[in-house]
Design brief:
Layout (H helix, E strand, L loop, with lengths): L3 E10 L5 E11 L3 E6 L5 H8 L7 E6 L2 E2 L5 H5 L2 E4 L12 H11 L4 H15 L14 H13 L5 E5 L7 H16 L3 E5 L3 H7 L2 E6 L2 E7 H5 L2 H5 L7 H8 L12 H14 L1
Length: 275
């Protein structure tokens, strides 16, 4: 059985004639950690909505584990692809956190004993167990984001997709989110995030797909993409601040690009020991 997302020659035009995607080709393998980046209006969110059938291609096709999304329902695809959108409040509606998480499981026909087991497990994993009987709307912004993640992860989709997960998060919340996503990916889930947060991507170093005006213009490692200042600026993004600083000091070395503090530390220690 195929276990990947394939985007083949996809075009998409919104009503009114706005072309959002133009000849997009992409393969995301099971277990990858991928960031989709680019300027506003580049087509990033449109692209991820293709993954669970919320949008269908105007031309071309999207395959999820070999299933053509044009021939499958959103409900069927949602068992495989869970999407957490930018504003978690838009996905929350139940009176308690327990009911919020149970909703999708009941819709998918899980037995009540399995629902209870999964709720307890995912609340422990996300650090929300003490809020089990509380209203979702009493949570902080970071906690709401984790609850939205929990309500998706609880039914065990193979692909976790996040739209701008760091918006509204303070540095501590971002660090917790980073650790959480790395652990989810370590457990075998495919993690795909749409983000403008270059510094966050520099910390987790996923595969980076760069989009501009509905097209993919670059696809490669974070080390390769984020350190290319001209390429990044062409999509209205800036490289990580420490990378720009390292370039000015000529600190980048073959095979070791500086994107974050840990990278800089390794290079400086190497220069000190070697010098």
């Amino acid at each position: 059985m195929l276990r990947l997302i394939e985007v083949r020659n996809v075009y998409f035009t919104y009503p009114g004639g706005v072309e959002a995607l133009r000849n997009v080709n992409l393969t995301i393998d099971r277990g990858e950690f991928t960031a989709i980046m680019g300027e506003n209006g580049a087509g990033k969110t449109t692209l991820i909505k293709m993954f669970n059938g919320l949008l269908k291609p105007s031309r071309g096709c999207v395959l999820v584990d070999g299933i053509d999304t044009r021939e499958a329902s959103v409900a069927e695809l949602s068992r495989k692809v869970g999407i957490v959108f930018q504003n978690p409040e838009h996905q929350l509606f139940a009176e308690t956190i327990e009911e919020e998480i149970a909703f999708a499981l009941r819709n998918f026909g899980f037995p009540e004993d399995e629902i209870a087991r999964r709720i307890d497990s995912i609340l422990r994993f996300t650090g929300l167990e003490k809020y089990k009987g509380s209203s979702p709307f009493m949570l902080s912004g970071g906690e709401k984001k984790r609850l939205a993640l929990a309500s998706i992860l609880v039914f065990d989709p193979d692909y976790l997709v996040l739209d701008e997960p760091t918006i509204g998060q303070d540095p501590e919340q971002k660090d917790k989110l980073l650790q959480f996503l790395v652990e989810v990916n370590r457990r075998g889930k495919t993690v795909i995030m749409v983000t403008h947060d270059v510094e966050f991507v520099a910390e987790c170093k996923p595969r980076v797909i760069l989009m501009r005006r509905g097209e993919i213009i670059a696809d490669g490692s974070a080390d390769k993409i984020l350190a290319d200042e001209d390429l990044m600026r062409s999509t209205s993004l800036l490289p990580p601040q420490i990378s720009v600083f390292a370039s000015k000091l000529n600190l980048h070395r073959p095979g070791c690009t500086i994107l974050n503090v840990d990278d800089a530390f390794r290079i400086l220690v190497g220069l000190y020991v070697g010098g």
